[in-house]
Prior knowledge:
Elements: E1 24-31, E2 37-44, E3 46-49, E4 52-55, E5 62-69, E6 75-82, E7 87-94, E8 100-106, E9 110-113, E10 116-119, E11 131-137, E12 143-149, E13 162-163, E14 169-170
Antiparallel strand pairs: 1-2, 2-5, 3-4, 5-6, 6-9, 7-8, 8-11, 9-10, 11-12, 13-14
Amino acid sequence: xxxNSGVWQWVKTGGDPYNGEFGQSFTSxxxxxNGTSIVGxxxxxxxxxxxxxxxxxxxxxHDLFVAMIxxxxxxxxxxxxxxxxxxxxxxxxxxxxxxxxxxxYTYTADFYFGDYLFQNxxxxxxxxxxxxxxGKIDRFGDWQWAKTWDAAxxxxxxxxxxxxxxxxxxx
Length: 171
């Protein structure tokens, strides 16, 4: 974190950058008006965000994470998701109610976002294609839902999103 004069306030990392084939990628960041931030990304093998960690049994494949960090650089919560093969987050946004929406892709039919079972409506069996998804998380890190779209004939990946003043999420 830098202040408005460009002076470093603190720096946080996500574990060993050389762990696994690809390490960790922090791909998205949004901030609440109070300065608390939501960070999203993906990792291989394992990741540690303060006292929150995950050790994926799926070596070499990407799993995803969403985490909250306060204005002092303390990790407040972290949620991890994944299954065999790859899942990645590329962007996230915070709506007017403080809920968090994420987008990315999955290469597997079903997997868990925390305790929420994400069931991909599109059969990926026999295809080597990614399926884009969007998911909703409340401000406490609990997954509310996830949806996919368009992967019947080719890959789809969610790279960018925003929310409007009515609370709608736009991809």
